[in-house]
Please model this.
Amino acid sequence: QVQLVESGGGVVRTGGSLRLSCAASLRNFRFNDAAWYRQAPGKEREMVASITSGGSANYADSVKARFTISRDNAENTVVLQMTSLKPDDTAVYYCNADGIYYNDDGAPVVGRYWGQGTQVTVSS
Model:
């Protein structure tokens, strides 16, 4: 079974930047549509940015012009570049993607998967 693994979270001051990356545990996993979500303490999980297999991106109003989602095909990852960070951006960030991989029998497996999350903390 494939797992999505997020990296790049951390603590940054207001106005700083972070780059989150989402990779699959299986090298032959191919991302289709993907998105980044976040969940702050006491709040519901919300979609931050999404990207289609064709590269079309969509953003929550709260992050437009500050966050950029992209696909790194060479590394087979989905990246969220975050700039001008604010304390309100503090949350656990999750990668969500659907895609395809081939199991040990060579059969295609299609599914949608979540990562475990990475903490982003923006201090004032």
In short: The chain is about 0% helix and 55% strand. The mean pLDDT is 96. The first strand starts at residue 4 and ends at 7. The two ends are 40 Å apart (CA to CA).
